Amino acid sequence: MTMRVSGALLAAVAAGSALTACSSSTPSSAPGTSSFPTSVAVSVPPGAPARTAPGTALRFGDSAVLPADAFRPSGPTAMYTVTGITPGEGVPDSATQGGAAFFVYVTVTSLAAHSSAAPTVVGLAGSVDGRTPALTLPPPVALKACGNPSPPEQMKRGDSYATCLVAYADAGQKLTSVIYWAETTTSDGFDFKASPVVWGTPTPASSTAPASTTAAG
């Protein structure tokens, strides 16, 4: 059975060394689904944080420094703190299409020196193996346990927003990790499709080239 993945995933979601976040859990957690925080308070370290290299393995709650815009891989960066992935409830059958939904929680922190457009979450996806991206999109309907508010129009260094995405798996599959796999370039140092950044618990092994996938029907 193959994992469903959309060839246009990056466009659809568009509505180095790793840094560990200096963070503290917010009071709210995923209602009725897990005990990990749905967002964290992230402290930006002084200076210019080093970019996280493709293939880096992180624990949930760690931060990665990645392109603020996946379509400008060598442009400004932002910090992405993935706190976890958990089975989701309340997603319509028309969206899961007989499969299962998982909620991905991420806190996005700007590193811009001046007020700039908010960093996007394009390129983040749930994964069954730390290499293969599952179809991952904003929630199809309003969900109490998976809030997806519009990010601020402008953000500056240290400003953050928390959001949730829905990752879709085929029946019987379990998504246990989250990857950054933006396929916008094959330039050295930015080929995250070949070697995604991966979050998991415990720290997952470094990623390798993604396995073959088929597009979602």
Automatic annotation (TrEMBL):
Keywords carried by this UniProt record: Signal
Residues spanning the signal sequence: 1-20
UniProt entry tagged with the keyword Signal: yes
Name by which UniProt lists this protein: Lipoprotein
